[in-house]
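Please decode residue identities from the backbone states below.
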């Protein structure tokens, strides 16, 4: 895994100062209104604040976000001779504090853009944007159209979950397990209950209409002990493949599956090498790429604030990872062939067979 350099300190500045930027560096001490001062110098400084709604470690969707923003800032600095400075702010697990933390980021007017990722962010950003009409937001894994200060990009997570459910059912059936597929979620939220869980079940039922869903909720995004408990209980009930979408609690689900002889389908990133042989699928999001591209667009003045874009497998932002030696080692040829037919259909924009 890439080095995780996310700072935990609120308002701690991570500097990306490249090229002949020493003068601006001196001007841009943390907390100062760096934008105006920098504009008087040779190179313009663009300040980007990344708000992690939770903790980055253990949640690849947030690690990819931070990484993509940093990479775009570096490239932009090199190409344009300007300076894009990135500050990472971890919001922590108390969701009640997120709005006040984002308000504190917006209030001084020091960020040209606040970036975040989570379906609950549009409501918070809309409220903060009403207080600070100059503040712009880029929100991934989120959807809100019509607010001229906010741009959102949402992934087609029905496709992502469908591919996860399809491999889960194929592997269960081959193991002659029960007609149950497992899903452990960090919490219940509309994208989970209306898109991800139904997509996962639909993918499983495409293999066999008799499949049913065992759904459990940890209640937070960090309790690995609870994740393990829920997974053990599912395994006792005959579930042989589980999809964990629970951030830091995923680790407990994975451990329980490994110890209990069950399998795991990983979500958001390629997880095969986390526990080779136990992880039998990886339904991924190109969140690093999306963050990179949207920051580039912003820096080039082309981000269409007010609009909401949706991207899926056919556009290259959702996928199922097949070209991995640990996938080939963990899953039979027959199962991989069936899964490949589905993946190819999604990549071609055709949707599942029969739809
Ligand atoms: N996903 C994570 O991986 N880690 C988190 O800490 C996390 N926190 C979330 C908090 C809220 C309020 C909501 C609505 C979703 C959260 N998610 C989290 C889920 C995330 O948005 C996404 O659905 C999953 O990562 C699957 O792609």
């Amino acid at each position: 895994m890439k080095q995780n350099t996310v700072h935990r300190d609120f308002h701690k500045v991570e500097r990306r100062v490249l090229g002949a930027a020493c003068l601006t560096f001196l001007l841009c001490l943390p907390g100062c209104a760096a934008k105006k001062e920098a504009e008087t110098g040779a190179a313009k400084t663009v300040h980007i604040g990344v708000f992690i709604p939770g903790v980055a470690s253990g949640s690849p969707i947030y690690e990819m976000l931070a990484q993509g923003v940093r990479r775009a800032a570096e490239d932009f600095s090199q190409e344009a001779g300007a300076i894009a400075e990135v500050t990472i702010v971890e919001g922590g697990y108390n969701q009640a504090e997120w709005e006040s933390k984002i308000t504190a980021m917006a209030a001084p007017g020091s960020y040209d853009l606040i970036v975040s990722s989570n379906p609950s962010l549009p409501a918070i950003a809309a409220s903060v944007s009403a207080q600070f009409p100059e503040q712009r937001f880029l929100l991934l894994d989120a959807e809100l159209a019509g607010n001229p200060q906010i741009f959102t990009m949402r992934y087609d997570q029905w496709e992502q979950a469908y591919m996860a459910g399809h491999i889960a059912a194929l592997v269960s059936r081959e193991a002659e397990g029960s007609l149950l597929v497992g899903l452990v979620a960090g919490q219940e939220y509309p994208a989970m209950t209306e898109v991800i869980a139904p997509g996962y079940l639909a993918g499983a039922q495409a293999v066999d209409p008799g499949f049913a869903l065992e759904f459990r909720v940890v209640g937070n995004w960090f309790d690995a002990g609870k994740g393990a408990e829920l997974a053990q209980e599912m395994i006792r009930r005959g579930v042989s493949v589980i999809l964990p979408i629970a951030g830091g609690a995923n680790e407990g689900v994975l451990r329980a599956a490994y110890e209990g002889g069950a399998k795991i389908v990983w979500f958001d990133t390629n997880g095969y090498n986390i526990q080779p042989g136990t992880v039998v699928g990886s339904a991924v999001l190109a969140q690093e790429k999306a963050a990179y591209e949207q920051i580039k667009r912003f820096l080039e003045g082309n981000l269409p604030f007010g609009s909401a874009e949706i991207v899926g497998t056919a556009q290259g932002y959702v996928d199922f990872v097949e070209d991995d030696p640990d996938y080939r080692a963990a899953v039979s040829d027959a199962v991989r062939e069936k899964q490949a037919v589905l993946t190819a259909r999604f990549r071609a924009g055709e949707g599942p067979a029969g739809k």
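Observation: The chain has three domains: 1-41, 46-155+288-311, 157-285+322-347.
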